[in-house]
Amino acid sequence: MSAQHPIIGYTLGDQAGIGPEVIKAALAQLPENAEYRLIGKEIDCTPGQPTESTAQAALEHLELAAAALRNGEIDAVVTAPVCKESLHRIGFAYPGQTEFFADRMGVKDFAMCLTGRRLTVALCTTHVALADVPRQLQTAEIVRIGSLLANFLQRTGKPAPRIALAGLNPHNGENGAFGNEEKTLIAPALPLLRAAIPSAEFCGPCVPDCVYRDAAQGLYDGIVAPYHDQALIPLKLIDFDTAVNATIGLPRLRVSPDHGTAFNIAGRGIANPASTLRAFQVALSSVI
To answer: What is the pLDDT of residue 127?
Structure first.
């Protein structure tokens, strides 16, 4: 393998979903300066009708993909959507593919990053109740996520990324009138991040109701967000068709389209492959 001709692996996900068709459509639009390698094999199934067999095949292919990444047989992997409910029924013990790949790669320092054509966000807290966010938000975690985001942006073509730390409270708390996490938790992360990654530019805390618009207009390359919906609502509003989910912190990148299996439209030829195409493009950008 070489950066001049990388090998990008891909899985078909739960093959009763739209994975096979969006993968096929994306592959037809990709450049020829890389090898695109199917991980696992196609199986016989009926579109729109997931079964234990389609879930089992999806899990087996995830295991094969993780092994190929770990062994250096591929440079990055694009994973098509899986049905977590079906996987959990057959013993899948992880919240999602993010945690699965981190575990299989032996990586403890990882995070979920969502990136579209105009917005890239990394999350300090993920699937927790909103009431729990202030208790879980910590300066050390902001520094960890900010560092991972900077490294990801540098790997994908931005050597001096501009990263904003979004505030937690409306208007950044109005100097403590309704929250002081900006002063006590977020602002202290800035000097630590600047010292850790001097090649990146960090600023903040940035007023959350403005910073995503600023980033979409090109002022920032990425945003560190304190909680899930603050980041994903603007991301899906602006970049719904091109957003992808990247597991950052892995030695080799794993990316997936930011949508589900869509069993209800599988096999009808109407699934939009834009997110899958973008996933391949992000994977390629990490190794070329």
So the answer is: 86
**Calpha distance 65→207 (Å, rounded):** 40
Residue 276, CA distances (Å) to 57, 242, 246, 273 in order:
20, 8, 12, 5
In the numeric block, the tokens 């993909």 are attached to 65
Nearest to 72 by CA among 223, 193, 251: 251
- Non-local (6+) Cβ contacts of 35 within 8 A are 5, 6, 7, 8
Separation of alpha carbons 122 and 142, rounded Å: 10
**Whose structure tokens read 């320092």?**
109
243 CB-near residues (< 8 Å, 6+ apart) = 114, 115, 116, 119, 235, 236, 258, 275, 278
- pLDDT mean across residues, the chain: 96
Question: Each residue of 246-272: b (16+ CB within 10 Å) or e?
Answer: bbbbbebbbbbbbbebbbebbbeeebb
Q: Which band of pLDDT confidence, cut at 50, 70 and 90, is reported for residue 229?
A: very high
174-215 tens-digit pLDDT: 989 989 999 999 999 999 999 999 999 999 999 999 999 999
**Dihedral over alpha carbons 121, 163, 220, 274 (to 10 degrees):** -30
Model confidence over 3-42: pLDDT tens digits?
A: 578 999 999 999 999 999 999 999 999 999 999 999 999 9
> Contact 146/220 with Cβ under 8 angstroms?
no
For the chain, the straight-line distance linking the first and the last C-alpha, in angstroms and rounded, comes to: 11
Asked whether the bond before 205 is cis by omega within 30 degrees of 0, the reply is yes
Q: Give the whole-angstrom CA distance, residue 200 versus residue 165.
A: 13
Is the model's pLDDT at 1 over the cut of 70?
A: no
Q: Is residue 233 packed enough to be buried (19+ CB in 10 Å), middle (13-18) or exposed (0-12)?
A: exposed
CA angle, residues 195, 173, 141, in degrees to nearest 5: 35
